[in-house]
Design brief:
Length: 128
């Protein structure tokens, strides 16, 4: 099924870029960003990597025929894109002295989607 491939692919891509972004933060950004901004960047990387593993797990264990299974994965994929990548954009803006403040409100929306994905997973486990 296409959804299985999409979820596995997002998991692998998030993992791949999570390692790259983590190394970039540890080696390059460490020299140009203040510690609190670097900490935010590291939070984005951490959430991205955690959800990469979760998406791979879901991709190998769900068939995605069930609506709830599709919603769990969708919330997590979109949540990572909004949460982690808005943080990366804000950190990049700080490093380059750009005004990308419009990204600020996007981060909590991504966080809400991540929480929704986890909440749906809890529901799925209980009601199943």
């Amino acid at each position: 099924m296409m959804m299985i491939l999409i979820v596995k692919l997002f998991g692998a891509v998030f993992g791949f870029f999570g390692v790259i972004f983590g190394a970039f933060g540890a080696h390059r950004l460490k020299r140009i960003l203040p510690p609190e901004v670097l900490h935010s960047f590291e939070t984005g990387v951490k959430y991205q990597l955690i959800h990469a593993v979760v998406l791979l797990f879901l991709g190998f264990h769900f068939d995605f025929i069930d609506f709830t299974e599709r919603m769990i994965a969708s919330c997590m994929i979109i949540g990572v894109l909004l949460f982690s990548f808005s943080i990366y954009g804000l950190c990049y803006a700080k490093a380059k002295r750009l005004n990308l403040k419009f990204l600020g409100p996007i981060t909590p929306v991504g966080g809400l989607l991540l929480m929704s994905g986890w909440g749906l997973l809890i529901y799925y486990i209980i009601v199943g």
